[in-house]
Amino acid sequence: MKALITGASSGIGKAIAYELASRGIDLILVARRGIELKKIKKDVDVDVKCYQLDISDMKNIEYLYKEVRKEDIDIIVNNAGFGLFGKFVETDITREFEMIDLNIKAVHYLTKLFLYDFVKKDKGYILNVASSAGFLAGPNLSTYYATKNYVCRLDEAIYQELKEMKSNVKISSLCPGPVETEFNKVAGGSFKHKGLSADYVAKVAVDGMFKGKMTIVPTLKLKLGIALLGLAPKKLLLKIVYNYQSKKMNK
Ligand SMILES: NC(=O)c1ccc[n+]([C@@H]2O[C@H](COP(=O)([O-])OP(=O)(O)OC[C@H]3O[C@@H](n4cnc5c(N)ncnc54)[C@H](OP(=O)(O)O)[C@@H]3O)[C@@H](O)[C@H]2O)c1
Fold first, then answer.
1. Minimum-distance ligand 1 atom for the alpha carbon of 182
2. Could you tell me the distance, in angstroms and rounded to a whole number, from the CA of residue 31 to the centre of ligand 1?
3. pLDDT class of 192 with cuts at 50, 70, 90
4. CA 134–ligand 1 middle distance (angstroms)
5. Coil, strand, or helix at residue 197?
6. What angle do CA 179, 115, 219 make, to 5 degrees?
């Protein structure tokens, strides 16, 4: 089997690369830091191709697709993404547009291109790395939460379409809470409690993807939390998330 992973140079994407390689799956790795991708290539025993690309630019998505479409890819992991802490009235619009391009448009485009091929072959897995943020609104991290809501809702809709078509193609959203990666450094914040390890999340993600789960939530505690969301008043949830994210913002 062969997997394409975006954002494989660090954090969850890198951990998924090692997890898939440990299962004998060849890799196509994508990120802007090519040097980090080459380190993974040196480290693993499977075939690895590296693409140093900024995929917030849709021209690079088209270039990537043209390069790899003949490769008979079985798995797409849309993982590249970032957040930005701050009040919406203060955050930088250029950075937010870049986030929307990466967290939404790149995921949307790659999902579309490969889903088309996968449906024709009637096989393949799409793992979109969303977040537990995909179930809520997120004051002080508003655009990020909104982008992850987009990914979760898109994946759920495609999941149902594939089910109705009796397709063998699977699509899953990975929805972790805090994970120890470069996320906070990039987003301008810090976790108040230690997050899960990226290696643990990667293992749960790959297991869930192969089981064809619609939504993959790494811990029971978080699963319960998400299940209870529908029962809590929306304004109370907004206040809780506001307080939680305020503590994480670098002042
Ligand atoms: N950490 C958490 O708590 C957490 C929780 C839930 C969901 N997530 C999600 O998990 C995914 C991975 O994040 P992470 O936590 O592992 O953070 P991370 O360590 O910062 O990794 C982000 C990855 O995305 C890549 N990337 C960023 N911009 C890119 C661009 N324009 N083009 C191509 N690649 C780009 C980065 O590589 P380069 O810089 O080399 O390009 C890096 O490999 C994200 O979608 C994030 O929203 C994270």
1. 19
2. 9
3. confident
4. 16
5. strand
6. 25
d(CA 145, CA 90): 16
Check if 186 has its Cβ closer than 6 Å to any atom of ligand 1: yes
Pocket test for ligand 1, best of 52, 79, 103 (most atoms within 8 A of CB): 79
Counted domains in the chain = 1
Q: How long is the chain?
A: 251
Enumerate residues 6+ apart whose C-beta is below 8 A from 107: 78, 81, 128, 151, 154
Nearest CA to ligand 1 atom 7: 131
pLDDT tens digits along 80-113:
999 999 999 999 999 999 999 999 999 999 999 9
Q: Is the CB of 215 under 6 A from ligand 1?
A: no
Q: Is 250 within 8 Å of 188 (Cβ atoms)? A: yes
Q: Which residues are catalytic?
A: 144, 148
Full domain range(s) for residue 125: 2-248
What is the edge-to-edge ordering of all strands in the sheet holding 125-129? 48-52, 26-31, 2-6, 75-78, 125-129, 170-174, 215-216
Q: How do residues 137-176 score in pLDDT, each as one tens digit? A: 999 999 999 999 999 999 999 999 999 999 999 999 999 9
Across the chain, mean pLDDT equals: 96
Q: Any idea what the CATH number is for the domain that residue 106 is in?
A: 3.40.50.720
Q: pLDDT at position 250, please? A: 66
CA of 164 from ligand 1 middle (Å) equals: 32
Choosing from 141, 175, 179, 216 the residue with most ligand 1 atoms within 8 A of its CB, the one to mutate for a pocket test is 179
